[in-house]
Specification:
The structure is a homodimer.
Chain A: E1 11-15, H1 26-34, E2 37-42, H2 49-54, E3 63-68, H3 78-94, E4 99-103, H4 113-120, E5 126-129, H5 134-142, E6 153-157, H6 162-171, E7 174-178, H7 184-193, E8 200-204, E9 212-215, E10 228-233
Chain lengths: 240, 240
């Protein structure tokens, strides 16, 4: 590196897309192949979804660092986890080696890479490589445009209170509800109250082997996996 | 093809990302390389931005079809342009050959591919391949996360009236104003009225050689190119 940080390595936050390994960008692939260390979020036990996406592209002998994040983060000091990860990656960057952090979807769109970025970007060169978001992958799967022309588009986390969900639904032409999970019934009620159930499409595990996509009206499940979303287009009709 | 459409070719709407040829996905590259015909939007005269992005990857001898779209679309019958394009691509698909339509950013996020999709997807197999949006590329360039946790995120086309822009600004944690162009002064006034100028970042021609990114407060221009956006994060502070 020949920047203001001297001979330090670069921290890359690299979006690996929503699930299909073919939705990796050429830039993500190049950086992964030249990285000294590849880091990724992972659950307490078991495999990392971000790593699984790119497993077939991982170079032989690359050093790996799993950032283990408990599922029930409210019970654990989440800040300490990122403190530890930053401390572990610091000597690698100081030695001049590059670190690639794999991020599901896009690194800066509801992603956890921001926590590492906040801890390391002051001391080391840092670059974010955008990825295909599950938002855009959802529109491709539903075969329905997310937004067009001068319509507005809102991204709404499903954990928000009912009143707030209703307010946002009232105000926007197009919405995607994220992180539906155990909030499925609440979101369904909000949409039904507005008489818009027939405009909503439910999707889970987009761009993976276990992908599901069906009209919300046909969904009988009462809860959903964390990686689920509902796309709603109020004024949907065939564009002319 | 062995689907319900018999031996017809497939229409692919392929996102080519915001500008950097390295932000192409592996899937986009594969489909481009095996397509019989590559189609793309283009101005009346001059080169197509979507084609320029992938020019180095275009296979030798591929047939090309430019969908010429006048800049001043209000003066022209835009529907007739897509009718003509669909009519031109129909015999290719009928003959069993695949058509790849190149789309800047993502095909279904404020993209024009929806017009071809509406005309051809009933008669031919059609697949949308999501791409990296300028939205996510903007967050990477500004080095500021677009949204996190249970924050809301709104995409707001700048041509909307002042009152509507103010209302949306009031209601959301994070916003991106798209298509800023000649609406720059209006958007700037709306943001200033809310006292949020210091939270806004202006970007144009993201992920190209001509990229600019600066705090809105430092921007002295009074108009902007069409491919410009303003990212605003109300509660922006370093994540901990």
């Amino acid at each position: 590196m020949t920047d203001q940080h001297g001979t330090h390595g670069t921290l890359y936050g690299v979006g690996v897309g929503p699930g299909d390994p073919e939705l990796l960008t050429l830039k993500a692939l190049r950086l992964m192949r030249s990285a000294a260390v590849i880091a990724y979020p992972a659950p307490d036990t078991g495999s990392s979804f971000a790593r699984d996406i790119v497993a077939s592209h991982l170079p032989e002998g690359v050093r790996e660092y799993a950032i283990r994040i408990p599922m029930q983060t409210d019970r654990f000091p989440i800040q300490a986890i990122y403190d530890d990860a930053a401390a572990a990656l610091t000597p690698v960057l100081e030695s001049g080696e590059d670190v690639v952090v794999l991020c599901e979807g896009d690194p800066f769109f509801y992603g956890s890479f921001m926590y590492l970025h906040a801890r390391l970007a002051t001391d080391f060169p840092c670059q974010v490589v955008p990825g295909v978001s599950s938002l855009m992958a959802g529109g491709a799967v539903s075969a329905r445009p997310l937004a067009s022309l001068s319509e507005t588009f809102a991204v709404v986390p499903a954990p928000l209170p009912t009143e707030r969900l209703s307010e946002l639904l009232d105000q926007h032409d197009n919405l995607v509800f994220l992180k539906v999970g155990r909030h499925l019934d609440k979101v369904r009620r909000v949409i039904a109250s507005a008489g818009l159930t027939d405009r909503a499409i439910y999707m889970e595990r987009i761009a993976t082997d276990r992908q599901r996509c069906l009209p919300l009206a046909e969904l009988t499940d009462t809860s959903a996996p964390y990686f689920s979303l509902i796309q709603l287009n109020k004024r949907w009709s065939k564009p002319v």
